[in-house]
Write a structure and sequence with these properties.
Elements: H1 3-10, H2 14-21, H3 25-36, H4 39-56, H5 66-85, H6 91-97, H7 108-115, H8 118-127, H9 130-141, H10 146-153, H11 157-178, H12 181-184
Helix pairs in contact: 1-2, 3-4, 3-5, 4-5, 5-10, 6-8, 8-11, 9-11, 10-11
Length: about 200
């Protein structure tokens, strides 16, 4: 990153901001798509994230990479969007919207996700608590290292590992429940199924 370009962008130079952000546009859209699972929503969130980045770039102090800072902005916009939208969205409609992981060489976790039925995975990811969903997206779908995820989420590396482990376990539980339709219908998000 060119320091002069950054300083100019922080002072309101639109051309400098565009030079900084153009290489990151694909990453911004991809992150938004992983959160929302819908192309139009991802585009809306990506646009909102870029506007927010433009308005708050003067606050960027280089305590992390520009990409990490922008990830935080994107995640914040997407989570706000999902919170606003959540009451109006059913699991069925979220599953119908689709979830298309990137075509890059898959990580082991991503391979496992791809082997599962797409509808089940989309429903399971939608049921994960926000903090678990975030680390799973960043790790399994974006291929970020623990340290990068810690920078993005603002928590310790140990917390990232713990959340990721819990997310994997919870995802497995949810997928198992989804394979038993009659059992799943009585289980609400965040609840565990009890045996009679």
């Amino acid at each position: 990153m060119d320091e002069l370009t950054l300083r100019r962008a922080q002072q309101g130079d639109a051309a400098a901001f565009e030079r900084l952000m153009t290489p990151l546009e694909g990453m911004v859209w991809r992150v938004c798509y992983h959160y929302t699972g819908h192309r139009e929503d991802a585009s809306d969130c990506a646009q909102e994230a870029m506007v927010k980045a433009w308005r708050s770039l003067s606050q960027y102090r280089q305590d992390c990479s520009l990409e990490t800072w922008l990830y935080r902005v994107c995640a914040s916009c997407c989570l706000d969007f999902l919170r606003r939208r959540k009451p109006n969205v059913s699991l069925t409609s979220m599953a119908e919207q689709g979830f298309d992981p990137p075509d890059a060489a898959p990580t082991p976790e991503e391979s496992a996700l791809r082997r599962e039925d797409g509808d089940e995975v989309r429903r399971a990811i939608a049921l994960l608590p926000e903090d678990m969903r975030t680390v799973l997206i960043l790790s399994a779908l974006e291929g970020k290292r623990y340290e990068e995820i810690a920078d993005i989420t603002g928590v310790a590396v140990g917390t990232v590992k713990s959340r990721l482990n819990r997310a994997r376990l919870r995802l497995s539980e949810i997928l198992a429940q989804l394979r038993e339709p009659s059992a799943f219908s009585s289980v609400q998000p965040g609840e565990r199924r009890t045996q009679p």
